[in-house]
């Protein structure tokens, strides 16, 4: 699909308007026991930052890389809103990282603060099974082995999470092509290069490579802001929906 300079300009304008609105409404009071609320605020702040980076980076085609990570953030947060106990695992995984840091310090002959070590041990005793590989569950941690999953999702793939939250099309039609760009795929590189004598140069970005990431960025930031509004009762539902309706009207014009 071909996109005009005017369409690109309109998309950029709506993304800028949404970003300002979200930045103005990001802060709210937090209950430290509300893991989902804490996570949603963290993700909103990061999505704000990603949108800002995209708008600064335009018209460089690497905006696709940032949109790709915005999709990752969105589907993981939606998953946690669907299964709120997962938000505790996201937040609690910090202790697993701390356990690894402390273990490496000890293995390298460095002292670990006893209070710090005690807090890590307490968390592992109370919650470690949530993060352990199946073969290590309900067992003491073996010496010189790491019994924990590599990330907080504990074996759940991003593709599976996308399916769980109704994001199959988003994953297949946008995340996957952006992944080809991320991983130096020949399809992505091939569409951008041309010969220059005996060398290779990159072409300028075409609008379709920029409009799609902008549309993704708008969706991701909007939905994360929407979840924050409902969870933290920010009272901005009408203003947020007005931004969405104006955006949809622009797309349909």
Describe the structure.
With 253 residues, the protein is mainly alpha-helical. It has one domain. 67% of the residues lie in helices and 3% in strands. The protein has ten helices and two strands; from the N terminus they run ααααααααββαα. A two-stranded antiparallel ribbon has the order 1-2. Helix 1 runs antiparallel to helix 2, helix 1 packs parallel to helix 9 and helix 2 packs across helix 4. The radius of gyration is 22 Å and the shape is globular. The mean pLDDT is 92.
What is the tally of beta strands? 2
Q: What percentage of residues falls in helices of 4 or more residues?
A: 55-70%
**Range of strand content:** under 5%
Number of helices: 10
Number of domains: 1
List unreliable stretches of 5+ residues.
Answer: none
Q: Characterize the main sheet.
A: 2 strands, antiparallel
Structural class: mainly alpha
Overall shape: it is globular
> Mean pLDDT, as a whole number?
92
- Along the chain, the helix and strand elements come as HHHHHHHHEEHH
């Amino acid at each position: 699909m071909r996109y005009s300079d005017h369409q690109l300009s309109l998309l950029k304008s709506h993304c800028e308007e949404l970003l300002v609105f979200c930045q103005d409404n990001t802060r709210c009071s937090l209950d430290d026991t509300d893991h989902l609320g804490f996570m949603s605020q963290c993700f909103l702040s990061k999505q704000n930052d990603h949108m800002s980076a995209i708008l600064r980076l335009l018209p460089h085609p690497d905006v696709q890389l940032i949109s790709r990570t915005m999709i990752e953030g969105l589907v993981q947060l939606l998953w946690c809103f669907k299964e709120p106990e997962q938000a505790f695992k996201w937040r609690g995984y910090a202790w697993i990282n701390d356990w690894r840091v402390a273990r490496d310090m000890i293995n390298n002959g460095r002292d670990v603060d006893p209070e710090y070590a005690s807090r890590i041990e307490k968390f592992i005793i109370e919650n470690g099974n949530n993060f352990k590989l199946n073969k290590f569950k309900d067992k003491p941690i073996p010496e010189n082995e790491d019994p924990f999953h590599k990330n907080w999702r504990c074996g759940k793939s991003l593709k599976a999470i996308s399916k769980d939250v109704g994001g199959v099309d988003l994953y297949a039609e946008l995340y996957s092509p952006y992944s080809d760009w991320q991983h130096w795929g020949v399809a992505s590189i091939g569409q951008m290069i041309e010969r220059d004598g005996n060398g290779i140069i990159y072409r300028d970005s075409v609008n379709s490579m920029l409009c799609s990431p902008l549309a993704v960025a708008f969706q991701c930031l909007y939905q994360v802001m929407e979840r924050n509004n409902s969870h933290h009762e920010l009272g901005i539902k009408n203003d947020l929906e007005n931004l969405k309706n104006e955006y949809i009207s622009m797309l349909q014009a």
